[in-house]
Amino acid sequence: PAQLAEILNGYFAEMTDLVFAHEGTVAKIVGDALHVLFGAPGDQPDHAARAVACALSLDTASEAFRARWRDRGIEIGATRIGVHAGPAIVGNFGGGRYFDYTAYGDTINTSARLENANKALGTRICVSQSVVIRAEQFRGRPVGDLVLRGKQGALRAFEPLTEEDYDAGMLSRYTDAFTKLEAGEAGAMPAFAALVGLRPDDALSAFHLKRLLNGSSGARIEVH
């Protein structure tokens, strides 16, 4: 129990400090998960860009946190992040003696579904096209058109990237391979195979290659 408390308290201390540094709002902590809002309670015209920058910072910090505990003999799972933008009902909700400042609506549910989609995709951050459209100078790559659990329509998702993690040359190669995938071209398979050969740790490219090897085609992906 004491070690679990040390892990969780240390993790939340680092994560919440980063959220506050990006002027985000921690709506709630549920288990080992953080619910974070941008654009509420105060208006933030650059809320999407802040959310993406915060997600990348959280990812870097959480991976460093995992490495420190790994050195102590404790293996901690990866932090997965889902980011979506849209309308939500935000405010104080509760009874006469207890109130909880939180957000409700499809936007919030979609964020949670995107977070969960990372498991299948091999990614750690998954953001929706609505975020990418709102964010200025977004740097990342398309993941695919995801049919999320409980949804019927597809949602285009992206993985944000830093220059350090994925340089311009590799990003161009991935974009070319993904374009072939969308078009259903036979060249998609060797293109993704080449990417995996260059970067064996590129989980998303490996995911697409596996799909193609299993007979799938196109960019539409059902996530369960």
- The proportion of residues in beta strands is 15-25%
Cα separation of the termini = 33 Å
Helix percentage: 40-55%
- Spell the H/E element sequence: HEEHEEEHEHEEHHHE
Report the strand count. 9
- Mean pLDDT rating: 94
Strand order of the largest sheet: 3-6-8-7-9
Low-confidence regions: none
Classify the secondary structure makeup into a structural class.
Answer: alpha/beta
Globular, elongated, flat, extended or rod-shaped: what is the shape? globular
The number of helical runs is: 7
Largest sheet: 5 strands, mixed
Assembly context of the chains: single chain
Radius of gyration using CA atoms only: 19 Å
Primary descriptors:
five-stranded mixed beta sheet, 224 residues, globular, alpha/beta, 9 strands, 21% strand
Brief account:
The chain is of the alpha/beta class and 224 residues long. The chain is 47% helix and 21% strand. The strands form 3 sheets. A 5-stranded mixed β-sheet has the order 3-6-8-7-9. A two-stranded antiparallel sheet has the order 1-2. A two-stranded antiparallel ribbon has the order 4-5.
Q: Please, could you describe this protein's structure?
A:
The protein is of the alpha/beta class and 224 residues long. The protein has helices at residues 2-21, 47-71, 106-121, 129-134, 168-183, 188-198, 203-213; strands at 25-30, 33-37, 81-83, 89-94, 99-104, 125-128, 140-147, 155-160, 220-222. It has a 5-stranded mixed beta sheet with strand order 3-6-8-7-9. The chain has a two-stranded antiparallel sheet with strand order 1-2. A hairpin with a 2-residue loop joins strand 1 (25-30) and strand 2 (33-37). The two termini are 33 Å apart. The model has no long low-confidence stretch (mean pLDDT 94).
